[in-house]
Amino acid sequence: MVRVDGKGTESLVEIRSLDKKYRRGGEEIDVLRGLNLDVDQGEFIAFMGPSGSGKTTLLNLIGGLDVPTAGTIRVAGDEIGALSGRKLAAWRARHIGFIFQMYNLIPVLTAFQNVQLPLLLTGLSKSDRREHVEAALELVGLTDRMHHYPRQLSGGQEQRVAIARAIVADPTILLCDEPTGDLDRASGDEILAIISRLSREFRKTIFLVTHDPVAAERAGTLLHLDKGTLLECAADGRVACKPEDRKR
Amino acid sequence: MAIPIEYNVRSAVARWPSTLVAVLSIAGTVAVFVVMLAMAQGFQATLVSGGSPENAIVLRGGAESEMMSALTLDQARVLAGAPGVARSAAGDPLASNEVVVIGAFALAATGSDANVQIRGVSPLALDVRPNVRIAGGRFFQPGLTELVVGRNVPSTYTGFSLGSTVEFGGGSWTIVGVFDAGGSSFDSEIWCDATVLNQIFKRPENIFQSVTVRLESPESLGAFKDAATSDPRLAVDVFRETTYYEEQSRTVSTIIRVLGFIVAAVMAVGAVFAALNTMYAAVSARSAEIATLKALGFGPASVVASFVGESIVVALAGGVVGSLAALPFNGFTSGTMNWSSFSYLAFSFRVTPAIVASGLVFSIVMGIVGGLPPAVRAARLPIVVALREL
Ligand SMILES: Nc1ncnc2c1ncn2[C@@H]1O[C@H](COP(=O)(O)OP(=O)(O)O)[C@@H](O)[C@H]1O
Ligand SMILES: [Mg+2]
Fold first, then answer.
1. How far is the CA of A52 from the centre of ligand 2 (A)?
2. Full domain range(s) for residue A172
3. How far is the CA of A57 from the centre of ligand 1 (A)?
4. Which residues in A lie closer than 8 A to residue B3 (C-beta atoms)?
5. What is the pLDDT of residues B275-334, one digit of tens each?
6. B133-137 and B171-180: which strand pairing?
7. CATH code of the domain covering residue A171
8. Residue of the nearest CA to atom 3 in ligand 1?
9. Whole-model pTM above 0.90?
């Protein structure tokens, strides 16, 4: 179930009356205004919306990278506004996997080492870590590039490494911020196929920000972010609410 | 588990020009630090090695060095007869009544004069100090104006080769022998008959400055000291020779060390700034990476540890380079004024493992000081802002 009216109960993600303001110079920018969202375990949601509408801001808030100006965000029962520093970092390690537009791999570490990073925060033994990393790289089809550095990989391959890194520690939620925004159609489709598979086969809860209607169509629910709040586009999520979005 | 140190090592190597600046400034500081300590160590070792635990040196009560001391022949005889003093095969007590004067001679290297310690000793001096042996020529004949010189002397001063004659103190002296005192301060001294020295220099006869005795064993010091200090005819201080030289070396070696610390501290300020600069640059160049690591769940402590670790790696590399650069100074021979006798003393620098270890510790300290503020900045960097910078 996905609801934007603030009436959900016992959802995995529960956002209530979320406000986010930025101050730039003397000016205040209202990015999010009274946003409500309920998302159950296993949902796959796509967010669309014009540039600057606050999509990245919303993902960052859900992932505990940023703090709300007002309102609450509960994820898996934890009120993340109440966490900070070390606790918030540990919470993030357990629950959140990020996939960024620019992949954000560590350039001096190999694919294997990049994927292994989240596991260093767990108590897993070296051999268990190796197993997990290999499984994650297998899932994205990059077992043969394990010991390559990011600069030796194509953009699509880098993003697949980033996906492996995001899922290796089996997080509750995957947050994907325009993961295909910097890729050609073919590579982008590969990435979307992997993300869809994570939703279908692994029942991951996925939030996907995208400008691409084709990408958005893979999601179970399409939400439109406009003027600081979310609009559900259609009951079945298969129809974009505004035709112009589909054509872009 | 923490952010792997490999990440830091490789990142530091990847931006090597900036890393190199920090490595070199820390290396320079550590090199100076190590060389200064090696100098102090060498100086101290040279003085201390002159002493033997089996010898006792006796000075007038309250005198801090031979220069300020005076003992009469009668007192010297009482000391020679005291319990604990070893005897020669012929049954003579092994005691050397000694007088020290300062001569000024031209240094071979510069031509300028330097002070030399001229020691009048008893004919038995070599038996009192078995660690001193004749390396060329022979020992002086009692009663003659003959000199035996330490092995550093012929090369350090003009005109002191074996067989030559030198004029000083109103007398004409022939160099009849060269002795080897095993690298101790005696190697920079000139020895002659104490009685002759008193006559030529028109000093009061039968007045000496110190008496050095060979003990039956190192343990005999207690008995000898008790007898010497309780005898009403004597008012003397008795020291084990090693202790005495250690005390004598303390002032100068402390001065060298303090100087070394001051110079190193001044240089360390520069080196720490270099480290700070390098690490601040690293943090700002890698802010997106740091934000990514934090997004993955690495906490503030991990980030601080990681960047302090990186700074330590860079600093330690500097420490190793600096120590290696200082290593050739091991055995490097120099001379300085021995301020306790106001005479010139040749000694060798000693780069010991302990000194290298303190140099490395010093570099680590610089790494921590230079790495901590940038590391704290890295940990505080707001994630969302840094992520947008990509
Ligand atoms: N750290 C910040 N300081 C000031 N303004 C910000 C900051 N981050 C985002 N904004 C502003 O908030 C708005 C929403 O940004 P963002 O969430 O990145 O939008 P989107 O991802 O939908 O393009 C934009 O107007 C942006 O300029
Ligand atoms: Mg965005």
1. 7
2. 41-65+84-236
3. 6
4. 117, 120
5. 999 999 999 999 999 999 999 999 999 999 999 999 999 999 999 999 999 998 887 777
6. antiparallel
7. 3.40.50.300
8. A22
9. no
